[in-house]
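Dear Dr. H.,

I hope your travels went smoothly. While you were away I took the liberty of generating a structure for the chain from your last submission, since the lab meeting agenda had it listed for discussion. I wanted you to have the full record in hand beforehand rather than looking at slides cold. The sequence, exactly as received, is reproduced here:
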Amino acid sequence: MNPKQHIPNFITMLNLASGVISITAVMQGNLVWAALFIFLAAVFDYLDGTAARLLDARSEIGKQLDSLADVVSFGVAPGLIMFQLLMFQCEGGGNMLEKFHIIPYFALLIPIGSALRLAKFNLDTRQEVNFIGLPTPANALFFAAIPLILFVPAEKMSLISLPFLVEFFSGIKVLAILTVFFSYLLISDFRLFSMKFKSMKMEGNEARYLFLGISLVLLVLFSFQAIPFIIGVYLFLSMAFQKSSAA
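The corresponding predicted structure, in token form, is as follows:
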């Protein structure tokens, strides 16, 4: 086999390794490092597909390895982060679900939904251009941003600080609802555009360029605080352009 055929798979293994390190960081109680390694895994996940296309090195084993790595990095790792956050918020809780630490197990929906999402993606030929259901990396990045918002001083990283986000993501009901909602989006029939450019022309890529432009502005202004908003923009633009194309 040509050595270049192994390059995408090697990058996929870096994705998997990043996910495992993220899980280890959660077990050690360091949710910030756990979140950062999920972001690193997302970089490798993007690069392995890009390398496979550029090198014409696509393979069935590469496809399966990618899904297995994604279950770990974008399913198990963010699920454990949310489990720990929900467990922490349960301390001193007033209702039965909090006293008996039942709510943290809602976080199991993230790896379960991610596994179902990836299995459907591998079998669904309709998702070669766009997505049906929220992609697992986008879902993982949303949840990985929460520890950064809670535990990293935003004023050191951002031009504009959004302190209300800390209070918002500190609520156990908010975290539980978001966990259930985004886990549903993973397996839903909601159609979203992908970031795969067949050409660099504006025509046909309007949603992609608009999304990139808005995301860049948000990142410059708000740094990691922008990530939940960026995922929200992605969902909104997908819905808006889906309706406009159907009209």
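Two observations you may find useful: The chain has a mean pLDDT of 89. The longest strand covers residues 131-132.

With kind regards,
E. W.
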